[in-house]
Amino acid sequence: EVAVVAAPHERLGEQPAAFVLASDPVEPEELAAFLDGMGMAPQKIPRVWRFVDELPRTASGKVIKGDLESSLQQ
């Protein structure tokens, strides 16, 4: 399971950041290569990867992306 949010970037303003729940260990390079191989545009492939045990969710189960973005500011 993955949630992608905007992370700060010094020159461009924003860059993609992915929060990943992975059941098996995986390297960010593997994930980026997979997305590239699937034809994803290079600018859409996350540059920031965070591996987490859980994603913050609302009572209805939606991911609270604002909390994820806030965690990147710290």
Describe this structure as you would to a colleague:
With 74 residues, the protein is an alpha+beta fold. 26% of the residues lie in helices and 27% in strands. The chain has 2 helices and 3 strands. A 3-stranded mixed beta sheet has the order 1-2-3, covered by helices on one side. The radius of gyration is 13 Å and the shape is globular.
Largest sheet: 3 strands, mixed
Number of distinct beta strands: 3
Spans of at least 5 consecutive residues whose pLDDT stays below 50 are none
- Report how far apart the termini are: 23 Å
Q: Give me the secondary-structure category.
A: alpha+beta
Element-by-element helix/strand order: EEHEH
* Whole-number mean pLDDT: 94
> Gyration radius, to the nearest Å?
13 Å
Number of helices: 2
Strand composition percent: 25-35%
* Helical amount: 25-40%
Q: What overall form do the CA principal axes indicate?
A: globular
Side-by-side strand order of the widest sheet: 1-2-3
